[in-house]
Amino acid sequence: MTEPFLVARNIAKRFGALTALANVDLEIRSGEVLALLGDNGAGKSTFIKILAGAHPPSGGELVIEGNPVAFHSPKDAAASGIATIFQELALSENLSIAENVFLGRELKRSILGIPFLKRKEMRQRVDGLLKELDAHISDPEAPVGSLSGGQRQAVAICRALNLNARLVIMDEPTAALAVAETRKVLALTRRLAARGCAVVLISHNISEVFEVADRIVVFRRGRKVAERLAADTDHEEVVSLITGAHPDVRALEKTN
Amino acid sequence: MNVVRQFGNGVFSMSGREWSLLVACLLAIVIFSVASPHYATSGNAATVLRNSVELLLIGLGMTLLLAMGGIDVSIGIVMGLAAIAIGRVLGAGGNPLLALIAGPLVGAVLGCVTAAVVVLGRVPAIVGTLGLLGVYRTAVFVLLGGQWLSGLPSSLTDLLATSVLGVPVPALVIAAAYLAVWLALRRTPYGLHLLAIGNSEEKARLSGIPVIKIRFMTFAISGVLTGIAATFYVATYRNVEMTIGSTLALDAIAAVILGGTSILGGRCSLIGTVLGVLLLRILQNGLLLIGVPSLWQPVVTGVLIIGVLGFEAVCNRLPLGRFQRARA
Questions:
Q1: Are A120 and A106 in contact (CB under 8 A)?
Q2: Assembly ipTM
Q3: CB distance B75 to B255 below 8 Å
Q4: Exposed, middle or buried by CB within 10 Å (0-12, 13-18, 19+), for B275?
Q5: Which residues make Cβ contacts (< 8 Å) with residue B114, sequence separation at least 6?
Q6: B183, B203, B325: best mutation site toward chain A, by most A Cβ within 10 Å?
Q7: Residue ranges covered by each domain of chain A
Q8: Residue among A214, A227, A201, A189 at smallest CA distance from A32
Q9: Class of the domain covering B16-327
Q10: What CA–CA distances, in Å, run from B72 to A30, A131, B206, B255?
Q11: Closest C-alpha to A77, from A168, A205, A181
Q12: How distant is the Cα of A51 from the closest Cα of chain B, in angstroms?
C-alpha cells in the first residue's frame, strides 16, 4: 500500500453548541478514489470544506505527506495541491474552455511591461489535457456556455489538473447529469486516479460509487462509522451502514 | 463540434450584429440622401464624423464598463468637468501641452472617484454614478459661475486640427485608442478577467481573479478616455457651455447596446460600438437635416435603447434564443 497523501487525525468541527464532526480519522491515498457516503447532515460536506480550506477545523490535525498543515483559506489548500470541484462549477460561461482552465493563472509574456496572454501555449496545454482525459471535446476555443453538463465537469477537472492538484475533491459531480454524461464523468474520475491523483468523491448514488471507488467511508451524525474496501462490501451493507441498521453502527452508537 | 465562436478573433471581426449595423448605417444614408438635398455632401459627412469623435472615445470606455457588468451614467458630465479644466488652463494662457495633459488627468482622477464610490463603497454602479451625476452637474454650474467659458485661445485647436501624413489627428487618436482597448480586452489577462467579472462576480472571485483591482482599473480607464474626449471637444468648439455632456451618457449607452454589448455584462463588441456610434450620429444628423427639431434627438436615442433591448428580450424567448444564450 502506498504512503497516504493526506492524513486527517481526530478532526472535529463545532458550530457553537452544534457538533458537526467529531473524531474523524481518515487516510487519503494517491491513485485511489475514496467515496464519502452518508445521509444529508452526516458531515460529509463539512469534512470536505475543511479539506478545501473553507472551514478551519475546531480540533484535530491535517497532515500532508508527513507535514502538518493549517489552512486559513481555500488558497492555502490550493497551494498544498488540493482542488475542490463544487457542484455549482465556478466556470465562466462566456469564456472559452482554454480561458476557463487558465482563468486567474494565465500564461503571459511581458511586452513593454504589459502582460500579454500566451494564447497558443494555453490552447496547446488544454488540448493536451483534454486528450489525456479523453474528454471528447475537440475545440478548446469553444465557449463553456455551449457545453453539456458532463463536458463542463471535464473542464473543471482540467482546471484542477492544471493547478497541479494532487487531491481532487468532487462534490456530487453527477447529480445534475444525464445517464451517458454520468458515465463519462465516472470514467474521468477513474482516469484522474490512474494519473496518480487522490480523488475524494461525494455521491448519493451507491451503484455509481461501487463503479468507481476503491474505498468507501460512511459518515453518520458527524462521525465516521465505517470504512470498507469496495471489493469487500456490497450495496446492501453500505445502505445499512448509512441508515444505521448495521450491527456495527448500532454497537458504535450504543457505546457513544 | 460545431460551435460558433462568440467573438471574432481579429481586430475588426464582425458577426451578424455588426453587419446589420453597417447595413443600417448605409440604409440611413441612402434614405436621408433622397429626403434632403443637403445631406449627401462631403461637408455633411465631415460634420457627422466630427460629431462622433467624443462619443467614439467615451463609447470605448462604456463598452468596457458594460462588459464588466458596470455602467457610468455620469460620464457626460465628467467630460464637462475635464473640459472646464482644459478651458481654465487655456484661458489662463497656459501652455497647450499642459492643456493636453489636463483632460486625461482630470478624467483619470474622476474615474478613480467613481471607482472609489462604486467599487470600494460597494454601491451598485447605476445608483452610485447617478448620485455622482447630481454632484458633478452642480459642480459644473458652480465652476462656470453661470457663464460659458468662451472665446478660448486657439493654441489647442492648432495642435489637434492638423493632419499627420494626410490623416487627421482625431482619427489617429481614435485608432490608437481602439487598438489599445482591443488589445487589453482580447489579448491580456485583464480582458479575460473583466469578461469573467461581467459573467459572474462571485465565480470570478472563486477563480482567483482580483475583482476589486480590475473593476477599479476599468473605471479609471473609462475616465482617461473621457478626458481625451474633452480635449477634442474644447479644441473643436473653443467654448464650454453649461449643458455640456448632458446627453452623452445616454448616447454612449445607446451606441454600445446597439453594437451588441450585453447590458448584463460578459459579452461585448468594440467594432459594434464604433458602428453603433456612427449609426446614432447619422440618424441624429439626418433627422435634423430633414427638419426634425434637435429637441427630439434624445427621444430617438431613448427609443433605440428600449427597442434594441426589447427586441433582444423577445429573441431570447424564441427557440432561437437558447442558441443565442449559449453563445453569450
A1: no
A2: 0.81
A3: no
A4: buried
A5: B72, B74, B78, B128, B129, B132, B219, B223
A6: B203
A7: 4-90+166-255
A8: A214
A9: mainly alpha
A10: 51, 44, 26, 14
A11: A168
A12: 16
Q: Computed from CA positions of residues B124, B130, B131, B133, in that sequence, does the dihedral angle turn out positive or negative?
A: positive
Assess A143–B contact: CB distance below 8 Å, yes or no.
Answer: yes
CB-based contact B208 A145, cutoff 8 Å:
no
Q: Cβ of A149 under 8 Å from any chain B Cβ?
A: no
Q: Quote the CA–CA distance of B36 and A1 in Å, as a whole number.
A: 88
* Residue A41 DSSP symbol: T
Count of all residues that appear for chain A in the document: 256
B178 contacts B60 by C-beta, under 8 angstroms: yes
Question: Is the Cβ–Cβ distance between B128 and B121 less than 8 Å?
Answer: yes
Helix (H, G, I), strand (E, B) or coil at A100: helix
| Grid cell locating B232 | 477634442
CB within 8 Å of chain B, chain A residues 123-142: 137-139, 141-142
Quote the cell numbers at residue A59.
Answer: 480540533
Place of cell 455602467: B71
Domain extents in chain B: 16-327
Tell me whether residues A103 and B196 touch, CB distance under 8 A: yes
Give me the tens of pLDDT residue by residue for chain B, a chain 328 residues long. 233 344 445 777 778 888 889 999 999 999 999 998 888 888 899 999 999 999 999 999 999 999 999 999 999 999 999 999 999 998 888 788 888 999 999 999 999 999 999 999 999 999 999 999 999 999 999 998 878 888 888 888 888 888 888 889 999 999 999 999 999 999 999 999 999 999 999 888 878 888 999 999 999 999 999 999 999 999 999 889 988 988 999 999 999 999 999 988 999 999 999 999 999 999 999 999 988 888 888 888 898 889 888 888 887 776 554 444 444 4
Minimum CA–CA partner of A160 in chain B? B207
Q: How many CB atoms lie within 10 A of CB B297?
A: 19
Contact assessment for residue B85 and residue B79, using Cβ atoms and an 8 Å cutoff = no
d(CA B63, CA B157): 28
CATH for the A4-90+166-255 domain, from 3.40.190.10, 3.60.20.10, 3.40.50.300, 1.10.10.410: 3.40.50.300
CA distance A127 to chain B (A): 14
Cβ separation of B6 and A92 shorter than 8 Å?
A: no
Helix (H) or strand (E) holding B123: none
Q: How far is CA B6 from CA A92, A144, B126, B320, in A?
A: 13, 11, 27, 15
Residue B245, burial from CB neighbour count under 10 angstroms (0-12, 13-18, 19+): buried
Is A141 within 8 Å of B5 when comparing Cβ atoms? Answer: yes
